[in-house]
Amino acid sequence: METTQTTGEGLTFEKVWEQMRETDRRMKALSEEVWEQIRATDRQMKETDQRMEAANEKLREQMKETDRRVGAITNRFGEMVEYMIIPNLLAKFEELGFTFTKANRTEIKDREHSLFLEVDALLENGDKVMAVEIKTKPNGDDINDHIERMGKLRTYADLHNDRRIYLGAVAGVVFSESEKIHALKKGLYVIEPSGDTFAITEPKGSCHPREW
Fold it and tell me: Which pTM does this prediction carry?
């Protein structure tokens, strides 16, 4: 008489092996499903990366175009400064009692003393020098930078036995009231549009012109 071997819980070994095989099949199916999800996620991530790269490339092209346009505007503004503002500065400052005989853009490259700076307009005579910084819309940093620039100019002048008095001015196409007050408090002349020309405001009272 044949007997069927059983486990302690009344299950035959055949049933146990069948359950184990079924469990193995399910785990393999689940594993394949998980791997398919992983592969799908990987494909989606690669597609996302490609879209982002395309978007970044488009953004880079837009930024290049913007830089090109800004550069063109800056160059045109520089030309306007050179041909319109600088020649008229001599006459305008003469109204304030200054007789400057020349006005030029100036660039200093003194490697020996590590002095490197540019001045948009340097107005000069035998006694005084007026250094003008010209910005489209001056801000506090521009004003503070010009104060630092004035100190470098004074250092450069001393190195070349230039004993003239140095003064500073900031010109702006758009000058906010707060920045104008800030510049005057720093002892700088303020140059801004006025009708068809421009006007110069002199630091007065407690805001006297600063000399370097």
Answer: 0.64
50-74 pLDDT, tens digit per residue, is: 888 877 888 888 888 776 776 555 5
For residue 89, is it within any domain? yes
107 within a domain of the structure (yes/no): yes
φ and ψ at residue 5, rounded to 5 degrees = -70, 135
Is residue 9, in this structure, part of any structural domain at all? no
Number of domains in the chain: 1
- Residue 196: inside a domain, yes or no? yes
Cβ neighbours of residue 144 closer than 8 Å, sequence gap 6 or more: 186
**Which of 155, 105, 102 has its CA nearest to residue 125?**
102
C-alpha span between 77 and 135 (Å, rounded): 9
Interhelix angle for 140-159 vs 177-185, to 10°? 30
Contact call for residues 210 and 167 (beta carbons, < 8 A): yes
Distance, in Å, from the CA atom of 127 to the CA atom of 163, rounded to the nearest integer, reads 8
- Please state, in angstroms and rounded to a whole number, the distance separating the CA atoms of residues 18 and 150: 92
Q: 179, 191, 107: which is closest to 143 by C-alpha?
A: 179
Residue-wise pLDDT tens digits, 6-58? 545 556 767 766 777 777 777 777 777 778 888 888 888 888 878 888 778 88
